[in-house]
Amino acid sequence: MGDVNARPTLRDERAQVTRRRIAEAARGLFRSRGYGASTLQAIAEEAGVAVQTVYAVYGSKAGILHELRDTVLRQPAAEALYEDAMRESNGARKLELFASSIRRRWEFGHDVVAIHRDAGGTDPSVRDEVKEVLGMRRRGIARLAQSMEGQLAPGTDVIHATAVIDALTLPEVYAELTGFGGWSADDFEVWLAGCLKTQLLS
What we know:
Helix content is 78%, strand content 0%. By secondary structure, the protein is mostly helical. The protein folds into two domains: 10-59, Arc Repressor Mutant, subunit A (Orthogonal Bundle); 71-200, Tetracycline Repressor, domain 2 (Orthogonal Bundle), CATH 1.10.357.
């Protein structure tokens, strides 16, 4: 039986470097040219590898996109902040923690969300993934809103709170404010926390 704690070999490390280079090359091209217009040949050239290597590592553009999507979904810092928010009993602090989790998620991957949505419009194999990710996001938001029941402002119910949180935390809002607006990620986090508290708390 192999040693589960064995250090990765040089070959393993090189394979991971190649994998990351391909993914980052694809991310840049998907962002600048669009998913549909980016070919595996172009991705290979951008990554400095043979197109056969891209096929061997990922199989398809959808395979690359799937990994990019997973890197956005699997963010330990953002997930930890969200769970901290769920455990927090103080409404204002709960929303501050949640705003911090959103900031970290979109700071790292708001462009991947846009790429994923774009791909869903042109690649049927990606369409169900887009729906799945949107469903996960909305369930997380609904869970947060439900945890605030009893602390919401008069006239604000869980359904209304869910809609407000959803609208304010769209990745497009982050992209607009930090891109065209020139805000820093810190600016966005402070603004989001303030808006959520103003809109939702009594």
